[in-house]
Fold:
Amino acid sequence: TVEARTRRGALLLERGDPAGALADLDAAILLEPRSLRSHLDRARARFGRGDLELALGDADVAITLDPAAAEPYHLRGRVAWASGDALDAIGDFERAVDRAPERAEYRLDLVRSLMTWSIDANVHEWGRACEHLDRVIRDVGPRPDHLALRARCQMGMGQGEAAGRDLDAAIAADPGYLDAWVERGALRLSQARPRDARADLERAAALGEGDVRTRRLLAYACLDLEDVAAAILHLERALSLGAEPGRWMEVPTQVGWQWFHLAAAATESGRSDLAVAALERARDAFSPPFRGLVDQAAEVVRSGGTLPRNRPLRPVEGLGPR
Structure:
């Protein structure tokens, strides 16, 4: 029956077998082409396999079957986001929230998309994101991860004091929550408090030995304090950990400048190997107009030269208009 096929397909999907799920869901849809549940689950299975266009097609069908339902819009938003269609994703997440305002997970996906879009497109949707986080925190309570996410929005709006209060609360609620320590360290760097930032980031490093962002920011804090030897140690550790996963939203240009200044410090310490590696990270972070500068700097280092570190260190986490 349709119900049996759909149930078994959903069970296989939960067990991590999208291929097996697809066989049952295809059969269910052949039996009943207007089965909303079957189309939604097949969209999830196809999404899990990376078949984004096919997943989008199933989500579209689900929406036509029940335009008042929130779940199809949320799913289509996830597929659109994975496809790089940020504005379509934001629109669908908003439609999902409108239809099911009580679903915190829908609001959180909308928040993350608004935050990322704010950075990528230099539009400033921090206020909208913060309003949705206010509702999530009111509905489900002040979870540390939600407080830290709201602090990120507040920083985007230049509300450093409010961000600090949320991060203090997140740490008080869960002293082992790595991201809150890292984020508060980043905030303190942006507030020209490198000593306090270093203390927070050292605590974060103790909690998450393998966190690249922690080590990068800690190296930068040490450099701001003119403790170049410590900065080089943390830079070496950061470079040994591989690529950053991009868990937090950061302005890429500012991340690039951090790597660039750390590369300059490495040349002053005679560590051209670290300098070249740090410049590669800077190049990855920078947009094309800055990459020529990085390439020139790398040539200087490879030819035995040093990079000047005489410009002021830029704020680490300023996320306002650039």
Summary: Residues 104-120 form the longest helix (17 residues). DSSP finds 17 helices and no strands in the chain.
